[in-house]
Each structure stands twice: as structure tokens, then as C-alpha cells.
Hints:
Layout: H1 13-26, H2 28-42, H3 45-67, H4 74-78, H5 84-111, H6 113-129, H7 133-140, H8 144-155, H9 159-178, H10 183-202
Helix pairs in contact: 1-10, 2-3, 2-10, 3-5, 3-7, 3-10, 5-6, 5-8, 6-9, 7-8, 9-10
Amino acid sequence: MATVPTGAPEVRIGDWLKEGWEVFVADVGMFLLASLIYNVIMVTCLGGLILFGPLTCGFYLMIFERMKGGKADMNRFFGGFNFFGDAFLAGIIFFALSLVGVIITYVGFLLCLVPSLIGIALLVLLQTAFLFTFQLIAQKRIGATEAISMSFNKVKENLGQFLLFGLVLWAINMAGYSVMLGWLVTTPLTLAASGAAYRSVFGLEGSGTEQQPVQV
């Protein structure tokens, strides 16, 4: 059983986005390459379904290594396959729940605005609930269901602020997908911001301090 920090976490959206950007630009080439591979695989139905969890864990391994002053590289990215079973299960659960929100959003756009807003709200809520899931799997090496539970339980301690953070991340990603190749930047940026949130809330093993500055 992994230990969980006590007390309601402070949500620092601006600080986490700033740190996420600093992490991204510190190894911009590697993060752009990882983002390209990640997004190309995600748009292939079967590949995205199977590899979403492991590759997301690998992305966080890259981010955390950079936060500790190391270099982000492809070995870290593909290191997410070391947690394939739990990462895959968490990814499948996330995809299944997301499908409900996607269907409601799509049908809502066809019918009227209100159902689509409900679908978007469900997607943001789901993303927020899973905010720390894949980081916990990669960092604490815990099972999928325990990681999901730990993530949701920590988020709900300051649900309103975390939902705002989740909405900001969702909006950044949507903006990235609306601009040609914008997702190359917004994917690692939002994941790095989520990584900064994880370090702030749970601490980062091997970093020596939760607030170690990024070395450029």
C-alpha cells in the first residue's frame, strides 16, 4: 500500500503550467519526438487503445527524469512498458469512461448546446479524477485500481480547484488540436504541468526535494 500525503493539497495552476513549460523547453527536441510518436499512435484505434497507458507512463518517466536534472530520452519514454499490465488496465478504464463523455458531446452538438456541455463537463471531470493515476503507476509502482483510487481521493480533497486545473489542461489540449501540429507542443506541456502537480502533491522519489528547479 503506497503512502498518501495528508492534508488538502494546494492547487497552483500558474506555477504548474510555468514549470511544465520549463521542463518542456529544457529538452524540447526529445519531447517533440515523443509527442509525435505518442499522438500518431493515439489516432490509430487499436494502437491507442492498447498503448495509451504504457506510453503515458513513459512520458511521465521522461518528465520526472528532467525534473530531477537528468535528460529526457526515448529509453525513458518506452520505459512505460515496464508497467504494461497496470498501465494498460488504467488506460482501458479511462478510455471506456471517456467514450461515454465523447458520445454525449457528439450527440449534444448534433441536437443542441446543453448536452454537449454536459459531455465536456464529464470529460473534464474524468481527466481530473485520473490526474495522478499514471504518475502513481510509474513512480510508486502500484496497481491500476489503487492508483485510480489514490488519484481520485487526493483530487476530491480540493475538487473545485482541481477541476479548474483540469479544465485549463483540457482547453490547452483542444487548442493544440485545433491548430496544425499544435498538439506537438500542447501534449508534452500539459503532461509536464500534470507532472509538476504530482510532484507538488505527492513528492518525487529520487529528486531530494519536491521543488527542485529544472536545470536548462
